[in-house]
Amino acid sequence: MLKRGHILMINPRSRLRLPIVAAALFTVALLSCQRQMARQSESHPYLVLFAFNEEGKQISSHMENIRTDEQLGRGVLLGEVGGKQIVLAETGVGMTNAAMTTQRMIDTYHPRTVIFTGIAGAIDSSMRIGDIAVPKFWKEHDYGYYGANGFQPNSPTAYSTSVDSLSKDYAFGADSTLLAIVSGLSHDSLGLIAIDDRKPEVRVGGLGVSGNSFIDSKEKREWLSSKFNAEVTDMESAAVAQVCSVNDLPFIVFRSASDLAGGSGSESARSQLDQFFKVAAVNSSTLVIALLRKLNE
Q: Please, what are the domains in the chain?
């Protein structure tokens, strides 16, 4: 115990050691923080969504270390593909089902990225059955106003992370990095199933549209083409795109054309769907697996 008038003397060597100790403690803390961030990153899986059971079967056949869960009355699979943690979930058909399921999956599993796979109706007449569209943007085609001049499409008011406020987004954009990775894949080595001896094309870019109707009308297809210059149409993707955008989550959508919306020749879109559904689902899922294996190489 120091008495009054005594002076505490510090060894000069001790003063020299203090910065070294401080630096060592900082290094230990930094490494601990980096390890914690790495663990948190690993705990954020890739969320893979699909609308029809057949689409999910193709993905699950590539999964390892599978565990099961249940959300909103539907089974959810948790496992790995190519060493990547993934959550595989069925959205169900339609915009409301897709939006509801996507938000629940985000809230529950905190994914790093959302990947949506499935089939679609081709709008662009140059697109052939089996081709895979990977649109840059997605938009609702049945949101708008019916008046004296018929239906006028519009854009929903939604929260935008870029301005931290409500805005009227024309379309919701897929992640540019993911689109670039898909563009860089060697499509010849993917092993996509040929239809009528023709190897399907992978078409990256353009616009996809979604609404709560199955389009089997030539007139409606031509309207979607003239109004939106759309590549494909489906019943879920724009809803998933909006939910991901509001949550500031990167996303990408793969849609394999199972039919020409409105049909072609004597075949309706429904008969084409029945004939080519499984092949289209397999091809779309093949591209998803290729992307998962390519990520973070």
A: 46-294 (3.40.50.1580)
User: Contact 284/113 with Cβ under 8 angstroms?
Assistant: no
Where residue 27 falls among pLDDT bands split at 50, 70, 90? low
Whether residue 41 is predicted with pLDDT greater than 50 in this model: the reply is no
- Asked if pLDDT for residue 100 goes beyond 80, the answer is yes
Predicted pLDDT at 187: 76
Tokens at 122, concatenated: 């081709």
d(CA 98, CA 297): 30
CB neighbour burial string for 200-232, b if at least 16 within 10 angstroms, e if fewer: bebbbebbbbbbeebbbbeebbebbbeebebbb
Question: What CA dihedral angle connects 103, 104, 109 and 112, to 10 degrees?
Answer: -10
Task: Take residue 194 and report the two structure tokens written for it.
Answer: 């040929």
| Phi and psi, residue 42, nearest 5° | -65, -30
- DSSP assignment of 209-237 equals EE-SS----HHHHHHHHHHH--SEEESSH
CA angle 183, 186, 190 (to 5 degrees): 110
The bridge status of strand 113-122 relative to strand 232-234 is antiparallel
Instruction: Report the share of the chain in percent with pLDDT over 70.
Output: 79
